[in-house]
């Protein structure tokens, strides 16, 4: 760890660094074309960050990172080769090109290989207010983390221990260029403060936490408020009781609800579709959700976590519905998967770019009042989801609701169903949107799921 990595960056040199990365990318393109490649693409990245962790009032870890990488892909017709390096010396760049070309020459042809169509390249590369460097040094980060942990530990005498608190700040620069003549640059920052606390003592201890994340320092919640929220969540889990096994309404709190959207995205991704490994095969045009439900992709949100003008293939992104009136409108495709399926890319090479789930209900408290008797899921455990069949069975913790009010905590339970039936059984999406992810959704109520309560 060097001294420079632990001191704040006080001047913004990102424009200069991006220009150097652009020059490197163009140099790689020229070398690959001179070596006989018919098509070429280059990705250059630089990242740096600082993370400080504390526990029980003491600094435990200080980690500084500074990484860079150059990824090269060459095509000889439909033969593909890739190589990478972190060394910017001319001899290393040449060796990387030679390695990628050698791999391509000995690789079998793939009819779907190659750059995305030139006509689909983004014509305009915009910025979306995602660059907000934070002049943060290790001392300041430690002070913020200590304040966060203290805010939680001092909140209630029943907070007996701590899993620690952390503060992190990172910057990322990237340049993508290809032999169509397209060059796209991007720069992003991301900062976070988080805390995990333990309430109770002995075999009655319960753990929970909270965190805040944003692209700018000003987007973060106050450290003390984060610590108090972590304490409140840990305290709410004390004295869990068993519940009778049966079928009940299940409300996935907003921070858990986005995992359900994640399962949808995985099932309609191009890779899952062309590998025939999805419970939603050939499902475009089918009604998967209630008629009122809409899910949109919004790549042009200002200060969005995944806002961009172009995908990892250089293809222009566009705002469009994924689900409209409950009906699946399209798959999530990059150019390779689109060719495998005989379809057109949706500009999603590398993933989706900001997903918003429209709400049809009020806030969390309103949803709890309306569910009568059932389960609120605040934590999920395990990997019990079968992406081929859609069978869903996961360990969970949360809150038990009786007569529209939270009655007590529950843990060590299992919630089970099938994702297709769960999607169709969505009764409400709250307006309590969790803003800490590129998947923006409120709490999601599913009308009926099996809850195994260990009674």
From TrEMBL:
SUPFAM superfamilies: Putative modulator of DNA gyrase, PmbA/TldD. Residues 40-104 form the Metalloprotease TldD/E N-terminal domain. Residues 245-453 form the Metalloprotease TldD/E C-terminal domain. GO terms for molecular function: metallopeptidase activity. Residues 132-238 form the Metalloprotease TldD/E central domain. The keyword NAD does not apply. InterPro entries: Metalloprtase-TldD/E_C, Metalloprtase-TldD/E_cen_dom, Metalloprtase-TldD/E_N, PmbA, TldD/PmbA_N, TldD/PmbA_sf. GO terms for cellular component: cytosol. Belongs to the peptidase U62 family. This is Metalloprotease PmbA.
